[in-house]
Every structure is written in structure tokens, then in C-alpha cells.
Amino acid sequence: MFERKPTHQIRVGDERTGVVLIGGGLDGTSPAPVSVQTMTAGYTHDVDGCVAEINRLAEAGADIVRVAVPEKKDTAALRAILEQTSVPIVADVHFHFKRALEAVEAGVHKIRLNPGNIQDREQVNAVIDACKDAGIPIRIGVNEGSIIERKDKQQRQKELGAFFERGHIGGRHAKLLALIIAKLEEYMDIFHDRDFHDVAISCKSMDAAFTIAAYQEVSKRFDAPLHLGVTHAGPKETGAVRSIAALSGLLTQGIGDTIRISYANDSAYEVQDGLELLYALGLRERRGVELIACPTCGRIQVDLFRLVQDVNRTLSKAITIPMKVAVMGCVVNGPGEAEGADVAVFAGDRKGIIYVQGVRVANVPEGEILDRLLAECESFQRRVLSGEAKLGEKSVEIIPPDPIGDLGSGIAKIAAGDVQSPTGLTINQT
Questions:
Q1: Which of 83, 129, 279, 353 is deepest in the core (most CB within 10 A)?
Q2: Whole-structure pTM over 0.70, yes or no?
Q3: Which class in CATH covers the domain with range 10-280?
Q4: Same fold, 10-280 and 290-429
Q5: Sequence-distant (≥ 6) Cβ neighbours of residue 235 within 8 angstroms
Q6: CATH numeric code, 290-429
Q7: 127 vs 151, which has greater pLDDT?
Q8: If we measure between CA atoms, which residue out of 204, 191, 198, 195 comes closest to residue 19?
Q9: Class of residue 324 by CB neighbours under 10 A (exposed 0-12, middle 13-18, buried 19+)
């Protein structure tokens, strides 16, 4: 749907975990699907806890999981962790180059490094050489929070003031963007001097607009695959908006090869929302249910909020194929909005009518909607998997019924003889 910017391709993982390709389009490679990453929140040296968290994140759909290794006891735990997990693992290294060397020796699949935090260039060279020998890539993180000198205030002011003041986003942001580009060019020269090219780049910020501008500039200047993200995005409620605002804009421009949405919350939400973003943009093939639900209004006559949550929770465990399921609270917009659904329920007057690819299969009381909908979805899934049916196979035209029809509250008036019989719901299949 969106033409991706060609980049160098890197490989993360091994035969046991499977290899995740990032980027592509240059050197005879094809662009790999945009991958989703996340990071553990627990201590890496807690082997059992770390393994359990990694496996849970992998089950949620994470392609790659990053772990922090600030101390030697963390890298010492890596070998045992790698033996019990089945997803590529990235070691997050800051300040001490020996943690990177220890992680490489333990068999980690990728290193995240900020060369600016390691002052001795020979130490950086040692990490590069170790990764080159092991055949694993490095992500260079030049994020807003770590790019500027923090200990030396004079150096900080020098760095901020040494570059152009005006830019397409202006003022302080222009200075920061210039600093990021300058630092990144400096870092990339180090890697090129060591003939090391398996590099990914990130330049995250907590500001969505600045994140877009920064990645646009980096994408123009470098052919390395880009790791997208908004850092310090905050709680899920606001972080989701901030992250999607930046990442969707970049992805639709063809910029970005792997993403991490960051929340101050359970990392599983990062994975779920990252995947949903890629599904929505058509950048990944959906796994599991695509749930459509109306936004609710005063016409609703069932507890739609609870029904949607129950349906989502139940079907996410039971359905593995990309089935489109619609849960609609009334007959006004429901039929049109559910037109492309494989399975749909139109609810009203404390009951629901269920359709499977345009065929009416049930009319049940509100309390039975969830169980019957699940049963119909599971039955349809079995037929798809056996080849008896196909997802989105039928083109269905649904003509909305009279609002006082089968699902309308006017049914009581009809029974009392106060109005004429309802028209019903007309479905024409082509």
C-alpha cells in the first residue's frame, strides 16, 4: 500500500528463534515486513521472571524483545534466559562496554548501543569488532534523552549552540535536530571505519512532531534501517495518541522498518497496539480477529460496552485466522458498517440477530449473544481451515430494516396492533 524507502537489511535471531529481517530493498533484498519490538520491565538477573515476561510478550506477538543489562549479573543471566526463550533478544547497553562484550559472548542476537555514552573510542571499537565476529547487528540510539551532554554544562551549551538555529520546525528543535544529525554522522563514521554495516538507527523523542522531522532527515541521509518510536510517551491513554501520531505519519511515507511503542504500562499493550497500527495500515497481515464495533449512542438497547469487551476477550483467545467480526448496537448504521464482516451481530431491544457472511443464522436474547457469537465464529473458522469457506468470500448488500422491525423497540407496538408489521432485514447476495 505504501512504498517503503529502500534500506540495507539486517538479520536478528538464529535457527532456534527464527530470523527476523529488518529493512531491505538494497543489495538485492526485498523489504521485510515492519517488525514489532518491546522491552521487558523486570530485572534481567531474575532469570525466571525475565523468561516468563519474554515468553508472555512473544505470545502477545512481539517479534523481538529487548532486555536491560546495566550490571554484570544481568549479562551473566543471559545464557540461561536465551536457552528458555524462542524470540530474538536484544541487549540494551549503556556506559560500560564490557556489558556489550559479555552479552555477545552469551549469544545475544543484537546490541543496542549509544556510542556517545562510552567515551573511550577503542572500547566502542571492541564492541563493534565483537559483533562483527559474531555476525550480530547493532542499533545506534541517538535519542533525545541521551544525545546531549548532561554532565558538563559548558559542553552542553556549546553543543546546543554550535548548529543552525532555524529549520523547518524552528528554534530549539532545529538545534536539537542538527545535533542529532551531527552526532549520528560522527557515530556512523566509526562503524564504517571498522567496515561494519549491520546497523539500525533510532532517533526518538518525546515530542511527536519532532520525532517525525528527525526521522525524515535521518531517512534522507542514511540507508540503514530505521527503528521508530516515541520515547517517554507516558501512560497508555496519552502515549497511544502520541506514538500513533508520529509513527503512522512516518510509516505512510515509507519511513521505518521496525517499531516500538513505549508505555508506562504493561509491555504487552505496546505489542498489541504496535501490531494493530501495522494491521490498520496494511503493513502486516492480520493474525486473529479484526473486531468492528459501533461507537455507541442513545439508540443502543443492550449493554454494548460490556458485550464488545467480552467478545474481544473471548475471540482473541479462540480465533487465530484474520476473521472480521462486527458487533453493532442498532440497525441504523450497523448493517452498512458491518457489510464486509464475516460474522456480525446486530443488537437491539435486548436481543441480537447474528449473520455469517450475510446469512442470518440466529436470533437470540441478549444474555445468549456472546456464547452464540463465539460458537458461530468457531464454526466458521473450522470451515475456513478445512477449505469449505473463505474469508470475505461473499459480497453482501444489506438493506437496513424499518427501525421498528425485528430489532426495534417498536415490536411491542406491533404486537399490540398499533402499527403495521415490520419490513424485516433484506439481504441480497451476489
A1: 353
A2: yes
A3: alpha beta
A4: no
A5: 263, 264, 265
A6: 3.30.413.10
A7: 127
A8: 198
A9: middle
